[in-house]
Amino acid sequence: MRSPCSPGTALPDRAPGWHDLRTAASPPGAADQPTHPSEDPMSDPGHLPPADDTDPAVRAAGGWGRLRQGVIYRDGVSGVRPTVPTAFPELERRAARVLSAKAYAYVAGSAGLESTADANRRALDRHHIVPRMLRDVSARDLSVELFGRRLASPLLLAPIGVLELVHPEADVAVARAAAAEGVPYILSTQASRPMEQCAAAMGDAPRWFQLYWSKSEELVASFLARAEAAGCEALVVTLDTTVLGWRARDLDLGSLPFSQGQGIAQYTSDPVFRRLAAERAGQPKTGPKPKVTPAAVRSLFSIARTHPGPMLRNLRSPLPRAAVETFLDIFSRQDLTWGDLARLRSMTRLPILLKGLQHADDARRALAAGVDGVIVSNHGGRQVDGATGSLDALPGIVEAVGGRVPVLFDSGVRGGADVFKALALGARAVCVGRPYCYGLALAGADGVRQVIQNLRAELDLTMALTGCASLADLTPDLLAPA
Ligand SMILES: Cc1cc2nc3c(=O)[nH]c(=O)nc-3n(C[C@H](O)[C@H](O)[C@H](O)COP(=O)(O)O)c2cc1C
After folding, report:
1. Considering the entire predicted model, what is its pTM?
2. Which keywords annotate this record (predicted)?
3. Residues 371 and 409 in one domain
4. pLDDT digits 0-9 by tens, 123-152
5. Of 62, 206, 420, 423, which alpha carbon lies 20 to 30 A from 463's?
6. Do the domain assignments include residue 56?
């Protein structure tokens, strides 16, 4: 089995600031470069060894946490501050300033009154960490095994759709960042770039594919075949999005990115989907014609710009609009039942994880259906308003699963202490959502890397400060009710 970032692969492969750490003895000023990719020649990926906890630089620094602190404080001596704030509230505030109103609404928004997003936070806050003393924590191991891969840390990047709203390089920037940090990236069905482009940017680094189960079974089969060919190592089936939630921020702006042709790159790059869209384009138009307004013209341009091929040709062709309409028709099925999983099983050789579980009985059914893992998630509060905090659902599901398959967790994770709590309650690993979107907004791939490095650093320091030398030490007795 491959290591997280096996040497010899053409990977983007260094944590920003490693250069600084390793060149501490170089002439004054040499280590004072800002970490922004456009300004730091060493941030060009591909030069330095993998971000792996066995790397001597991590060991020499005394772990991930001290490595990251060292880089930031050393830069600080020269007056250089991190381009990506280390604490989430400021990260979000700064991202809000650089994103368009529609992009920010799409990323930050949750369903309805957004009370589930609040519940996610409250569930984490209700657990306090109780540090333990005088345990040897001089060497800390954050590594974890998932589906035959040893990962340097228990972090994954959650699938996030429509990243072109956030940064022009979208998913490809995230793919480069994930590969550089050895953190698996779960490629979304609603990505802004085809999975093959992300895979090409990732070399041998781990990626998974997230599936929204389309009404076209032929399209599902095509997605799965492409995901396997693109080197995805697991399939994540998101179950909580049979329809889009009631997203007040988007609704009030009248904003649905997909209707602008955004976030449908997996579809428009797919031969089965292209055939379906072409069939639709050949049919006579039915239904009301859209009013011709400046906004409608802008939408037309957006659809033509995002569709593959030259924009001028797309403007004249019925195909781009037919593609959007076809997508809106076949996006997701509402008639799926547990019985359908057997068919999915027969369609792929990849391990299957179900994402969106919140009830222990559903976890039991998932096990009975033979899945290989579950992800406890409420989609970051974006689907059901008034729902339970995701962390509150975790212990019951961990108990129901009883160690038979890995339980992953997401929704509301904002810092290393949050990761610590989820792991202490039995999650094998944690997926991060909005924080990396905001890093992407602020500094592209480098921003995503900084977010990963910060989370990993804070987790490492929290372990050091609570008497934990490895993830096996993270047990529920380290938590107390608030
Ligand atoms: C802007 C945005 C887009 C998302 N798109 C997807 C998606 O395409 N597929 C999916 O399974 N989950 C999607 N999610 C949910 C995330 O995978 C993850 O469950 C959630 O972000 C975790 O919550 P957090 O943002 O509070 O960390 C999306 C979340 C956000 C914020």
Report:
1. 0.91
2. Oxidoreductase
3. yes
4. 999 999 999 999 999 999 999 999 999 999
5. 206
6. no
